[in-house]
Every structure is written in structure tokens, then in C-alpha cells.
């Protein structure tokens, strides 16, 4: 395992953060954030390889965070995680070059597969 934080998870739902910790925490270094402002402070500095990002959050939305990441030209692979059904969110996310779009509730196999593909 590398000594850097390879995966960031940004979601205002503590249950989702706990799920990611249970799914990936034993195998990967994780940094968990329940708001986008805390995550932004470390995204640029750490440049994680993978980011699981909720769309609807207080403060900056996931789409705004995604745009910020692309404006800073970070190489982070971004997976949008959302319960929102509206297709315009998915279209906006694809416009900013997401890696994958994952719908809640989380599918354990899908999360593990995305992580393996993105990091290996």
C-alpha cells in the first residue's frame, strides 16, 4: 500500500461514508469528508487517484467540485455517487470528464470493481 491517500470520499451522508469505509477501508487508504470545503483544501495538495463524490451537498455541489478539479487539471478519477435521478446531472458530470456515474443505493460489487479498475 502506498503512503498517500489514494481514495477520497466526499458525501454529506455519514451512512454513505461508513459504507465506503466498510467496503474499502481495509484494502485502501481512504480520506473521508462530509463537506466539499474540507475536501477541496486537501484535493489539490494530495491529488488522490480516485474520488467518490456526491452531487447534492451543502456548499459546493459535486458538479462544482468536479469543475474545480478539472480547472486545476488534477488527474484524479472522479466517480459521481448520487441518488438523484435527473439525467441533466449525469450529462453535466460527463461534460467534466467523470470516470464513472454510480447510483445509490451502493452496489458492493460495483464499488469494488470501479476501485480495482481505477487504481490498478
UniProtKB/TrEMBL annotation:
In the record, which positions carry 4-aspartylphosphate? 54
SMART domains referenced in this protein's UniProt entry, alphabetically: REC
Matching entries from CDD domains are given as: REC
Keywords for this protein: Phosphoprotein
Every copy of the Response regulatory domain together lies at 6-119
Instruction: Return any one Pfam family short name.
Output: Response_reg
BP GO annotations: phosphorelay signal transduction system
SUPFAM superfamilies hit by this protein:
CheY-like
Q: State the protein's name.
A: Response regulatory domain-containing protein
